[in-house]
Amino acid sequence: MSEHFTVVVVGGGQAGLSMSWHLGRLGVDHVVLERDQAGHEWRDRRWDSFCLVTPNWQVDLPGFPYAGDDPDGFMSGAEVVEHLEAYAASFAPPLRQGVTVTRLRRTAAGIFALQTSDGDLTADQVVVATGPYHAPAVPRLAERLPAGITQLHSSEYRRASQLPDGDVLVVGTGQSGCQIAEDLHLAGRRVHLAVGSAPRAARRYRGRDTLTWLDAMGHYAKGVDEFGDVDEVRVRANHYMTGRDGGRDIDLRLFATQGMQLYGRLLDVTEGALTFGSDLTINLDNADAVAEGIKDAIDRWIAAKGIDAPTESRYVPVWEPPSEPRALEAGELAAVVWATGFHRDHRWIQVPVFDGRGYPTHDRGVTSCPGLYFLGLPWLWTWGSGRFAGIARDAAHLAAKITAPRRLRKAEDVIWLAGTAPETVAA
C-alpha cells in the first residue's frame, strides 16, 4: 500500500529545504524527496574556482540567516554545500535522499500519485522544487565539429588542466560562460569566446557592491507582474560579473587586450570552419549600456535619498572589435566548452499545467491545478526568486497557500483530467 503524506516536496536543494522548514514549523505532515544528495546542484555542476555572484548576506534561508564573518564576501561552491548541510542539520527535515520521482499524476479522486525509485507515494499536495536546470543544452551543430576536439558542457567543466593542451573555444557569455572563460584565461590558456547578448554589471560602484545598492532600491522585491512582458522577463539572462578573489567586474574588452579572442554569436560549423555573427560590437555595447544604466539608477537613488557616497569615474571601453567578423578553423581548437544553458525536463509531471514552451504556468508558484506548486524558479515572483535572496519569501507564500482553509471550487472552476469525467475538487 502506498504511503500517504499531506505534502510531498520534490527536490532537496535550497528551495525544497526552505519549503520543509516552513511546513515543519506549521506542523504539516510532509516528506522531501531528493534524487541525489541535498544540494546536489552545488556539488556536481560547478568548477573548482566557482563562487557565488551574490554577496553572502543574501544567503538568508528561512530560520537560518547568514551568520559568518564575511557578509560582503562570496561563498565558494564547497562553502555553499557546507552551508546547506548545516541548514538541514539545524532542523532535521524529513529528507529522503537517492529517491527519484519518475511520474506525478493527479487521480480522479483528486489526490496526487507519485511513482518513485523507492516505491509509490500519494499526497494531498505537491511542491516541485527541482529548479530550472535539468538537462544540459548543447546545440546540434556541435555534432559537426571534428572528432578530435574535446567537447564539454559547462556543467562538466572543472578546471583548465581537465582539457587537452591547446586553444579552447567557450560558447556563451552568461555568468557561467564568462567565468569559465576567465578561469581558462587566468590559467594561461588561449581562449576564444563566442559572445552572446547577456548583460553585465559592475561589481562595485560608489563604495558599495552593486547588488547591495539594488537591494536597497527595492529591485529584489519587485514583482514580475510589474513588468510589461512577464514571459520576456522570465527568460532574461543574468548580468555577468564574478565573486572570485573577493569579487570583481568581468570586462571582456580588457580580456581582448590581454589576448582573448572575441567573436560574435556562433552560427554554424561547415567543413571545419566556424562561422560567427557580425553582432560582437552590438553585444559588447549593449552589455556596457546595461551596466552604465544600473549606475545611472544608483546615482538617482543616492541623490534622492541624500546619501553620502563617494563619487566614481565612469567606465571607458578599452578595446573595440574589428570591423569584420574573425574567422576560426576547427583545426585551431583543442577543446570547446558549451556554456549554452539547460533545458527544463518536466516530462515526469503528467498534469496539464505547462504552456507551449514547456514552462509551468503559475501565479507566484500556484498552478491552475489545485494542490500543485512550483518553487525555486527564476522570476517565480521577483528577481530573487531563483536565488537564495528570494527563496524564503516565496516559500512562506506557498506555505500559507498550502495551509489555507480549503473550500469547494465553483462549478466553472472544475478541473478536467485527461481520460476522466469532470470532478469538483477542493481549492
UniProtKB/TrEMBL annotation:
<keyword id="KW-0560">Oxidoreductase</keyword>
<dbReference type="InterPro" id="IPR024000">
    <property type="entry name" value="CHP04046_FMN-dependent"/>
</dbReference>
<dbReference type="InterPro" id="IPR036188">
    <property type="entry name" value="FAD/NAD-bd_sf"/>
</dbReference>
<dbReference type="Pfam" id="PF13738">
    <property type="entry name" value="Pyr_redox_3"/>
</dbReference>
<dbReference type="InterPro" id="IPR050982">
    <property type="entry name" value="Auxin_biosynth/cation_transpt"/>
</dbReference>
<protein>
    <submittedName>
        <fullName>FAD-dependent oxidoreductase</fullName>
    </submittedName>
</protein>
